[in-house]
Amino acid sequence: MLRSRLSRIGAGIVKELSRGQCTATCRSSFILRPYSACWRPQVELHPETKGFQGTIFRKHFQFSSAATSNDSANGSDSEEMISITFVGKDGEEKDIKVPVGMSMLEAAHENDIELEGACEGSLACSTCHVIVMDMEYYNKLEDPADEENDMLDLAFGLTETSRLGCQVIAKPELNGMRLAIPAATRNFAVDGYVPKPH
Ligand code: FES
Asked: What are phi and psi of 9, to 5 degrees?
């Protein structure tokens, strides 16, 4: 009884803490995974009991409750991957696999792709600027928040399909998306601005 009550409290806390931050499309699994850059709490439910395990404040994390068809089928923690192509400043293309729920900035960094991300995803720069090469995919993205639009206004070489890589989160509909990395970025950090994590 106590255990079930604790579980309910835990679930309530998770819901509260993740409100408005979880961007994954599938909520059938409640394991929250980190993928981006912020001072935010990391909360996990125990994979079997679904009980609340704890909250750890860590830098560079947001929430994702991405789940896969396998997750729902057999309860495993395997990740669904999509294919993304980055086109570098020199036109060189690199195809990578990205887990659903991960930001394009983090995916780029994990694959040694040169996408700067000076503020590490806290929406205080425009150095993670990417250009979605196909309008069809651009239209599948969530609308940018005001903060993202503010930063995009400062981006070098802004286009109609520009987005910030740290705000583009992998989801199944984006499978096959191509992203171009602009030839230059404006880095406010080198002009004396020091972004603060939030
Ligand atoms: Fe600074 Fe994306 S890394 S806004």
From this structure: -65, -45
From residue 41, how far is each of 54, 83, 162, 166 by CA, in Å?
Answer: 9, 29, 29, 18
Q: What distance in angstroms lies between residue 23's CA and the mean position of ligand 1's atoms?
A: 17
**Residue 85 CB contacts under 8 Å (≥ 6 apart), including other chains:** 93, 94, 95, 96, 176, 177, 178, 179
| CB 13, CB 83: distance < 8 Å | no
How far does residue 76's CA lie from ligand 1's centre (Å)?
32
pTM of this structure:
0.59
Smallest CA separation from ligand 1 atom 3, residue = 117
Q: How far is the CA of 51 from the centre of ligand 1 (A)?
A: 34
Probe target for ligand 1 pocket from 38, 106, 126, with the most ligand atoms within 8 Å of CB: 126
Tracing tokens 């989160």 back to the chain, one arrives at: 169
Per-residue confidence band for 48, with pLDDT thresholds at 50, 70 and 90: low
Q: Which of 33, 19, 24, 195 is nearest to 122 (CA)?
A: 195
Task: Give nearest CA residue, ligand 1 atom 4.
Answer: 123
- Comparing 54-68, 73-87, 114-128, 183-197, the range with the smallest average pLDDT is 54-68
